[in-house]
Amino acid sequence: MVEIENLYFTYANYQRVLENVSFSVPTGQIVAVLGANGAGKTTLLKLIAGLMKPDNNLEIKIDEKTPQQMTGKISYISEAGTYFNDLTPKAYGDFLQDFFLSFDRPYFDMLLEFFHLEERPVKKMSKGQRAKVEIAAGMAKRTPYIIMDEPFVGKDMFTRQDFMQALSGTLSGEETIFITTHEISEIENFVDRVIILKENTIAVDITMDDLRQEGKTIQELMKDIIGYQENGFYTYLDKIE
Ligand SMILES: Nc1ncnc2c1ncn2[C@@H]1O[C@H](COP(=O)(O)OP(=O)(O)OP(=O)(O)O)[C@@H](O)[C@H]1O
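Above: the input record for the complex with adenosine-5'-triphosphate. Below: its predicted structure, written as tokens.
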């Protein structure tokens, strides 16, 4: 269970990105953290993953512990990648096997094969191939907490489908997952709950059951909350002319 209570986060340049953020997520829930560019999604996910600390370090508790005390139980899958550029996928697997007690080596090797990844240093791979190494590693860690920051970036349509299949086919249902993405349609049928960040805090926190009951899609909800204006650029041009 993840409990976040009155979370504030300020970057070193004094830019406050999150304030008064509170929510709790029960074990096994899949949560989409959404919002416009710069809303603070990556910041929130990094805080939950323990890669940065909140202004007051007691604001995030995962199973009653700080995120830093949960190292090894959280898998952080991001566009930037957590692999080492000089290692081949299998050498990276060797490293992870030593580091993560729960690392599922046969599953990792199976995913490398499924994604047709060759044995060459990650730095010599394409962006999409690197992303596949990142996903294979992240999923084979078999951690109870999975945090995915833009897992679809740089992936072609088929890879995105393969990824969702591999993900859905792997989960035990016990994993608690946070995912942020701008590819809303990819996650509509995957997540249980949507949290939308706006102006440094939570603008909406709703379960998919409630959203469906309201007869809305995530996309429609986003439009309502973020207030996307159709033809906004032309309106802007009209204004400055
Ligand atoms: N290292 C940093 N130092 C200072 N400010 C930062 C830093 N990283 C991000 N920010 C600022 O914090 C705010 C939130 O950034 P964040 O990356 O969390 O947003 P996001 O919602 O993930 O955006 P996007 O959808 O564009 O990826 C932005 O205004 C950004 O400029």
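Notes for the reader.
The chain is about 35% helix and 25% strand.
Residues 11, 13, 15, 17, 35, 37-43 surround adenosine-5'-triphosphate (CB under 6 Å).
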